[in-house]
Design goal:
The chain has 156 residues and is α/β, with parallel strands linked by helices. Helices cover 40% and strands 19% of the residues. It has a 6-stranded mixed beta sheet, with helices on both faces. The protein is globular. The relative contact order is 0.20.
Length: 156
Amino acid sequence: MAIDYGRRRCGIAVTDALRIVATALATVDTRQLIPSVKKYVAENEVDAIIVGLPVNLNGAPSDSQRYLRPAIGELRKAIPQTPIIFWDERFTSTMAHQSMLDSGMRKMQRRDKAVVDRMAAVIILNSYLESKAYKDSLDIPKEDIQNTNLNIHDTE
């Protein structure tokens, strides 16, 4: 599961059982994030929750982290059995907009910020699934792992 956290709403994405591809699940009001995630985790198998970590282009923490970190701290308390991993989310909104353009979405649909939030969560989760960090968490021989491109990430 991945979360694109925002002060007003959060995009949520999940992966298929084989953990090959991410798909958009929902956009929820930020105040409903914890109950929504808690319910989903109780009803579905979730190995980890990947949370987009907003950082500046130079890798320094963005101002948005002052809202995100306390909220995710509360999520950790609500579901302590599920690991939460922060993941670099630079450019995910831009990539979401580009994906929407490429898919032929109409202008009015692209203006829907809830759609952008879901798409950003999908991009975050796909990025994690394609990463060395995820592949290292599996019991796959190192010689079978290809295309690993790990950026800076925080598992705090």
